[in-house]
Amino acid sequence: MKFIHKFILVVLVLVTLTSCNDDNGKATLIKDHEMGLDGIGDFYSYNKIENLGTYKTGPVSVDIESVETIKGSITKGIKSAGEEEYQDMELISFLTRFDLNESPDEINENLNFNSKENLHLATHTGEKIDMPHSKLSSVVGIDMLKSNHEAEESPFLRIFIFEVEELAAQEIEAATLIIDAPVDSEGNAVGEDLEIEIDFKE
């Protein structure tokens, strides 16, 4: 009888270990990240899709180079590193290049567009994230884009990361990046809102 109990215990342990190994096997430790994500902690990539295309809203265009689901923790590099709220985060990360498709001289000087107010995300479960993660994301604004354009600089690579609360990174099946159109001083949209759908199951 003792032998049977020991045998069952061994089987359960092996099943647990196999399950853990399978789960870890889906993730890849991020190294040499384009935006230095690996320099502030340990982050693991689950699904990555590249070359999602170029989209336009009003005078703003965005080329999405890649999107990936990530799990990780901030352990260094910023003042709040190591704090509990920055541990085991479930993330969706976008690498993008924002640019203007019109001459800065032709753009209303009061036009408003920035990453804090105009970028949002929704997951396939209905969770909505209002803005990119402030500690992990770049910033972009219409004035910055005008300056870059006038200096004839190539569009900078920027990262925008959204923290998901309701799903683990490996559970994220789909998401929609929502980019609100720029607005003028009277609150009128200059362009169409964008909804860019991403299917991580493909």
Written account of the structure:
The chain has a domain at 49-70 and 92-199: Immunoglobulin-like. Helix content is 18%, strand content 36%. It has three helices and nine strands; from the N terminus they run αββββαββαβββ. The chain has helices at residues 2-25, 115-118, 142-150, and strands at 28-29, 41-57, 60-74, 89-100, 119-123, 128-129, 157-164, 174-179, 194-199. The strands form two sheets. The chain has a five-stranded antiparallel sheet. Strands 6-5-8-9 form a four-stranded antiparallel sheet. A hairpin with a 4-residue loop joins strand 5 (119-123) and strand 6 (128-129). The radius of gyration is 21 Å and the shape is globular. The relative contact order is 0.18. Mean pLDDT is 87; it is low at 5-25.
Give a quick set of tags describing it.
single chain; 202 residues; alpha+beta; Immunoglobulin-like; 5-stranded antiparallel sheet; 4-stranded antiparallel sheet; 36% strand; globular
